[in-house]
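We treat protein structure as text, and this decision shapes the records that our systems exchange. Such a record has a labelled line for the sequence and another for the C-alpha cells. The record that follows is passed on verbatim for readers who wish to inspect the format:
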Amino acid sequence: MTETRILIVDDEPELRGMLRKYLTNEGLVVSDVATGVEALAYLDAAEADLVILDVGLPDIDGFEVLRRIRVTSDVPVIMLTARADEIDRVVGLSVGADDYVTKPFSPRELLARITAVLRRGRTTEGSDATILEFDGLRIDIGAREVRAGDETVVLSALEFNLLTALAENPNRVLSRQQLLDRVWGWDHYGVDRVVDVHVGNIRKAIGDDPSSPRFIATVRGAGYKFIGEPP
C-alpha cells in the first residue's frame, strides 16, 4: 500500500509536534516546516499527498504560499487559521484551498478533513479511463488532466472534480446544493458562496468568460450548466 505523505506548515512548534505524533500514529508519513519559504523549498524538492498550511506564517502569509503552490501543483491543501470570518474562508478558497479548519481544533477533526479531501482527489482512481472532449477543452478523467486549447490547466483536486461533475452532465442545470453534495460530500461548509468561488477559479483557469461563456453558464437562481460543444 502506498504511504500517504503529509506536509505540515505552521510556526507553532508545539502544534506541529502534536499533529506529527497524532497523524504518524494514524499511519501517515508526516514532515513539518515552520515557514512559507521552507514549505515551497520542500515541495520543490519532494512530493506530498496533502499540505496542512497555516495562514499566519512569519515570513510569507499562507494565502501567498498557496498562490505560489497553485502555479505548478494541484496538491490538496487544508488551511489553518485562528480567524473564523467567512471572508477569510472565501479568500483561501479563491486561491485554491481544498478545505479550511479554524483554530482551535481537535486532531481527530483534522484527520477527518484529511481523509475527506484525499477521498475527493481519488474518486476517479481505478476507474476506466474516460476522456471528455469539447471544442477547446479536453478533460482526461483517468489522468486527472485538463487542457484548454494547447495549454495544460492546473486545477486543485476539488476543482477538477467540480469541473468533471458539470461536464459529465452537459446541458443539465445542477444546483449549488447538488454540486456541494456531489463534490464536497458530508463535510462541506453548506454555503453557496463556496461553489461560486470555485466555479470562478475554474473559469479563470480554462479561459471561460462568464459574460459570454463557452463552457460553464450561470443559470440565475438555479445553479450552473455545462454548455461546451463537441469538437
Observations:
- Confidence is low (pLDDT under 50) at residues 123-128.
